[in-house]
Each structure stands twice: as C-alpha cells, then as structure tokens.
Design brief:
heterotrimer, A mainly alpha (about 260), B alpha/beta (about 240), C mainly alpha (about 270), B: alpha/beta, Rossmann fold, globular, disordered N terminus, C: about 270 residues, mainly alpha, MetI-like fold, about 80% helix
Chain lengths: ~260, ~240, ~270
C-alpha cells in the first residue's frame, strides 16, 4: 500500500474509531473484559511489563533464537541453493526430494526436534533453521537457474575463473531472487520461534503469551502479542533498510568495475 | 462532428460522410490518440465539446466503437475468440441464440475460421488484432474508430491486415476513422486524409484520395500519384517536426 | 548442455533426467533403512523406513489417521472458505472505492504484522479448544494474502481494458462483473494459492498448542507418548495431505481459469 500520498487522516481516524469502540465495548461489559480488556488496560500492562523489565528476558531470548536460526538458515540455504542451482546434475538429483519435503508444513518437525533435542534452545533454533531454509533455498535455486546463459558465457569468454564467475556474475544476478527468499523467511523464522516456544518452551515471548493466557492475565497476553507484532515489524523495516544499502553498494560496485 | 479544443488539440472541425474511410496523420505526439479518445467519449475535453451527429456527447456514444493499438491489453484473455466476438454482440443487446451464428460469420470474415475456441494468448499479434476488429464490428457501430491498430505489428502482417480491413469495410459499409503514423498506409486505405499539425493540433491539410477501389498492394502503390501524395504529406509533417 | 532429438523427443539428457531424482530418493531411503537396521542410528528415535511405512499403512487402513485428517480438514476448510468469502469482496471494494481503501488501510497495516500463531492464545480465551478457535486462527492468517492479492489484482487492471469496456457502452455494474472480476481472477487465485500452505500450517500449530484431535495433535501426542513410529507416520500423512491439497488446487485452477492455466504452461515451456 502506498504511503507516498498525503497523510491518511481517514485511515487513522477509522483506526482510532476502532480502538474507541474496543475501549467502550470492553468497559461496558465486565464479562467481556476478561476476554478483551480495554485498550487502555492493555497499554498500561504493556508499559508496566517493559518498564519493570519483566518481559525483557523473554524478548531477548526470542530475538536471540530468531537471529541464530535465521542467519544459520540463510548461510546454509544460499550456499546449498547456489550449488544446486549451478550444477544441473546436483539439481536433478535433489529436485524430487525437495518436491516431496516441501508440502509438509515445517511445524510438523517440532515433535521430532523435541525427541532429538529435548525442549530448549537447541530444539527451537533447529526447527527455525529447518523452516527458514526452504524459502531461501527454493528462491536461490530459482534465481541461479534463471541466470541467462549468455551472462555466464560472457564471463567464461573473458577467461574468468570459476570463483570469480560465481561472485561477480552469479550472485549479483541471482540477488533479487535470493533477497525475496530472505524476506519471506524473515516472517517464517519469527513464526517458528514463537510457535516452538508456545509448544515446548519455558522462556521467550511465545511462551510468555501462552503462559499469561493460562493464568488468565489477558492484558499481559495482549501486551505480549503487541510486542511480538512490533518486533516483527521492526525486523522487517531493518531488513528493508539493509536491502536498500546493499543495492546501493551493488550499484556502486558495478559502476566502479565499469571504469 | 463539431469543433473542440484541448491542450493537445487546437481547433479541429471536420465532417465525415457516412461510409467514408478517413485517416488522420501527423507528427508524433500531436495528439492523434487524444483526439480519437475524445471522440470515443473516453476522455472528456477540458474545453470545448464534441458533437456527434450534431449532438454533444457525454461519455461513450452508443454508435461508436474504438479499436486500440494494444490489442493484447484490450482483448479479454478469459474469453475465447468466439467469446470475445460474442461480447460485442452482447454489448449491442443481441440475444445469445441469434448471436452465435453472426459471431462465427464475423470470425470467418476476418480470416480466423477454425480458431473460434482458441484463447487470445494462443494467437499471433496479427490474429489478435483481427479478433479485436471482429469484436468491434460485432457491435455494429455506425462509426469505427481505430487508433494505430496495426502499429505494433510487423510490416508484412500490417499489409495483410490493411487488406482485410478494406475487405470488411467494403462488405459492411461502416464509417471508419483511422489514425496512423504510417503515411503510405493512410494513403492506401483512405478516401480522405487530414494532416494534423503538432500540438496544439489543427488540420493543416485535407487531401482527397481518389485511387480506384478495390485497392491493391502492388498496383495502387505503384501509381505515380501515390508517391507524390506521400511526399507531399511527408514534407508537411517534416516541417511540423522541425518548425 | 541440453540437446533436442528431432521434434517429438523428450529430453534424454542424463544430467537433467527426472530419473536421477527418483534414484537419489530411493538411495537415500535405502541408506536410512540400512543405517537403522545396523543400529548406526538409534531405532527408538529414528525408526526404519519400513517400520514407518508399515505403521502408516496400519493407521491409515484402520481409520485412525483418516479420522484425524478429516478433523483437521474440516476446520481448515471452514476457516479458509470464510477468509475467501470475506476478504475477496472486501479487496474488490477497497480497490474500486479509494475512500474505503484509505479508510481501512491503517487498520490493516496495524493488524498485518501480527504473526498468526501468537493469536492462538487469544483465540483460546474466546473459544477454548473448540473448532471455532482453529477456524478463527486460520481465518485471521489467510486474510492478508487473500486481501492484498485481490486488492492488487483489481488495481493492476490495465487501463486499456477498462477503456475497452467503456467504448462498448458497458454500464458500471456490468464492467465489474464482466471485465474487472475475470481480469483480476488470476491474482485472486494467487492469493488463494499462497493461503493454502498457511492454512495447513496454522491448523497444525493450533492443534499442537490447543486441541484434543486433529493431525497436528496426533503427531505431538505420539511424540509425548514415545510412540515414535506413529509420530513419523503422522508426519508422512501430513506431507501427503499437503501434496494432495496442492494437486487439488491445481485442478481447481485448471477448471476455473482454463485460459490462465494454459498461459502459465506456455510460459514454463518457453
């Protein structure tokens, strides 16, 4: 959705109305308040949680697991993806395997992971890696395979060694695809971390949200949900900012080589 | 038609006889498309008005249809060739039962017999434009407006379609308003040509083309007069481009 | 390099052959089987392929797995259908009427970043462990891809197409039904297609977090009771379900939008 136009007064007004309705509706019915506390109450709970530091450990734990899982997945998936995309024989071997594993929802791996790794950090990071690898892998393979043959042949005509072809032609050309995969995996990684924390965790935001629900602390629960949403939003923004920087760097690199 | 003024178009006033084939030629960007879109009622003029049959129009007039240059964006990808042509008939208000026969006749007329159940993506550019023309004719318009309909096609296909169009025109007698940047095409097809100036465009020349009909790609174009007219128009447009 | 044999030949190039993939897969399974039998891998944690397949077969024919799958499918289908029924029309309205779009834009952007699984506890507050909980979660998760793709699909309709509809004198209502809807259907389809795996994932998650039946629950429960072969059998069932749903969707795509399906096939070959 574009944000290039003037400030969206209507949109914010409608959103504000939505919050107002929530607030009034919730306060009007004490029975409802258990399920949906008034907005004000949630905001208070949220600030209290942050200020008191109650939620800090959970937040940092989730963030740490996310980063470990995501970055590891990226490293593995891009490496393997480039190899599979570049070497057609390798790709033909693994294509069928990938086709069979893809339809299975990654979350189904959680029970296996629990069996193998117990409950805790290792399990959570492992399932995150597993799930996040797929979009990056598939997109990378796609990107590398779709590189125009002429681009690579040009490199070979210039007598470039294989490694240089890889770095200077293959990776930049496949970059858009890889970036798409990385972006999709961003949300997936967060989903997996929080899910694993809900199913078998003792720390982390996922666990926190479920725990607060169990103790019927609905305000805290909603506060936790908002926290996760904000975390996801910020990670997304960070990704976009890094992406822009990388594109600029790439453009600079190409320009420099042209000289 | 009456007079109209827009930023792209200056004062243009001209009269078209029923059943005539007339063309507008002019330098690039002179507003030919704007003119045609305004006549078709798809753009509202910022000043002045458009009169069709003496009455000012307000939106697309019911007896006019415009054929676009971008046939691949204009055809309905989800309908077959037959479906697209039927759309024209349906828009006219014809009942489905009587329509199918008429549609098939038109499809045959544009030379696409046997392709009724094909989808547009399966056809070549020239074939797609034929479908668009058939669809427009299915609407039974009094006036057919054509905005550089053959501009996106290769040279040979263009010649084929010129002849197909002339055949259709002679068979159906529809009035045709044609826009093209191809001077020779205009001369080959038309009864009359208006040469437009650059923006804001006005008519700088009106030429009557009286080569005998039916026209022929070889003999008509070989006539001495053909090249004379062509050079005359070319010079005028060149002047406009450099002026 | 690929080589073509005459006109009708299939590509017999060794490097590209699909058979490579089949053989590789079989080889992997063989290695797995042998590794377990030789006890290189703990059979209590990773049972032999034969055992898994056997257990799966047993559970399938006894009806145990189908029952769970059906339970999951029921919830998934309702959530998915509801999301489609609500968000496709909403997307169309938002695309056609700019005021509506701008009015709802902020609210949508606020709700969108919420990762679907964390909504589950909230849904549990309202609906407990009932079907409605899962249906709501799936409804919420599938909402955004469907809404945004529908919105895009309508907004990206080429102006020439709309001009065409108007030059034929079509009234606004007919333009919507006869031109806008069919023209945006491919992208609406994309939204539905993208939502399919999301639906499956969320039904599994919601069953693992809070349920008493369903395939997700079955898998987790099997793990808790150390019925390892059953756990893997459940995962196999899930993979098959995902595959079957995909194929069904393709079938639907083919029958509803035959013209688009044809175009896509051509693009793949070309």
């Amino acid at each position: 959705m574009n944000g290039s136009e003037k400030f969206n007064w209507t949109g914010w007004l409608v959103f504000g109305l939505f919050l107002l309705l929530w607030e009034c509706g919730s306060r009007a019915s004490p029975k409802l308040q258990l399920y949906i506390p008034p907005v004000s109450q949630i905001v208070v709970a949220l600030s209290h949680l942050i200020v008191s530091g109650q939620v800090t450990t959970h937040l940092l734990t989730t963030l740490r697991r996310f980063l470990e899982g995501y970055l590891l997945a990226a490293a593995i998936a891009v490496t393997v993806g480039v190899a599979l995309g570049y070497f057609r024989f390798a790709h033909s071997l693994t294509e069928m395997l990938i086709e069979f594993l893809r339809p299975m929802p990654s979350v189904a791996i959680i029970p296996v992971a629990i069996l193998l790794l117990g409950i805790g950090d290792a399990m959570i990071v492992a399932v995150t890696v597993y799930a996040s690898t797929w979009p990056i892998l598939v997109n990378t393979i796609d990107g590398v395979r779709h590189i125009e043959r002429t681009l690579i042949d040009t490199g070979r005509t210039f007598g470039l060694a294989r490694r240089r072809i890889l770095w200077q032609i293959v990776l930049p050309a496949a970059a858009p695809y890889i970036v798409t995969g990385l972006r999709v995996s961003l949300s997936i990684a967060l989903i997996l971390v929080t899910t694993a924390e809900m199913i078998a965790g003792s720390k982390g935001l996922g666990f926190f949200i479920l725990d607060e629900e169990r103790s019927l602390q609905s305000s805290n629960m909603y506060a936790g949900i908002i926290l996760v949403a904000v975390l996801g939003y910020l990670l997304n923004r960070l990704f976009l900012a890094l992406e822009e920087k990388a594109m600029k760097w790439r453009r600079g690199m190409v320009a420099r080589e042209a000289i | 038609m009456g007079g109209e003024t827009t930023a792209a178009i200056g004062n243009i006033s001209c009269q078209v006889e029923t059943g005539e084939f007339v063309s507008f030629v002019g330098p690039s960007g002179c507003g030919k498309t704007t003119l045609l879109m305004s006549i078709a009622g798809l753009i509202a003029p910022t000043a002045g008005k458009i009169l069709v049959k003496g009455r000012a129009i307000n939106g697309p007039p019911p007896n006019l249809v415009l054929v676009f240059q971008e046939f691949n964006k204009s055809l309905f990808a989800w309908r077959s060739v037959l479906g697209n042509v039927l759309f024209g008939l349906d828009a006219r208000g014809k009942k489905l039962r009587e329509s199918e026969g008429k549609a098939k006749t038109l499809i045959e007329l544009v030379g696409l017999k046997g392709f009724e159940s094909h989808y547009p993506w399966e056809l070549s550019g020239g074939m797609q434009q034929r479908v668009a023309i058939a669809r427009a004719l299915a609407y039974e318009p009094e006036v057919l407006l054509m905005d550089e309909p053959f501009g996106s096609l290769d040279a040979l296909t263009r010649l084929e379609l010129e002849d197909t169009l002339l055949r259709l025109w002679e068979e159906l007698g529809t009035t045709i308003l044609f826009i093209t940047h191809d001077i020779e095409e205009a001369i080959y097809l038309s009864d009359r040509i208006w040469v437009l100036s650059r923006r804001p465009s006005e008519i700088i020349e009106e030429l009557w083309i009286d080569f005998p009909r039916p026209r022929h790609q070889v003999t008509t174009r070989a006539e001495g007069r053909f090249m004379e007219i062509r050079n005359q128009i070319y010079k005028q447009i060149s002047n406009e481009n450099t002026a | 390099m690929a080589s073509r044999h005459g006109c009708a030949g299939s590509n017999l190039n060794m490097r590209d052959s699909k058979l490579n993939g089949v053989f590789f897969l079989l080889a992997l399974l063989l290695v797995w089987e042998l590794a377990v039998r030789a006890e290189w891998v703990n059979p209590l944690i990773v049972p032999a392929v034969s055992k898994i397949v056997g257990t799966f077969s047993e559970l399938f024919w006894s009806g145990q797995i189908p029952v769970q799958i059906l339970a999951s499918l029921k919830r998934a289908a309702v959530g998915y259908a509801l999301a489609a029924a609500v968000f496709i029309p909403l997307g169309i309205f938002m695309a056609l009427f700019d005021n509506i779009r701008r009015a709802l834009e902020v609210t949508v952007e606020m709700l969108r970043p919420i990762p679907p699984p964390v909504v589950i506890p909230a849904a549990m507050l309202f609906f407990g462990l009932e079907d409605e909980m899962k249906i709501f979660v799936i409804f919420f998760s599938c909402a955004w891809p469907i809404l945004l793709n529908t919105l895009d699909g309508v907004r990206n309709i080429d102006r020439v197409l709309l001009h065409t509809a108007r030059t034929f004198g079509l009234p606004q209502r007919k333009i919507i039904w006869q031109v806008i809807l069919p023209a945006s259907s491919p992208q609406i389809m994309t939204g539905l297609r993208v939502s399919l795996p999301i639906m499956l994932i969320l039904v599994v998650i919601s069953e693992m977090v809070g349920s008493t039946d369903g395939i997700g629950y079955f898998i987790l429960d099997a793990q808790r009771r150390f019925r390892v072969a059953q756990m893997y059998a459940g995962m196999l069932a899930l993979a098959i379900l995902g595959y079957v749903l995909n194929q069904l969707f393709n079938l639907a795509h083919r029958s509803l939008l035959p013209w688009h399906w044809g175009m896509l096939q051509k693009k793949d070959e070309g």
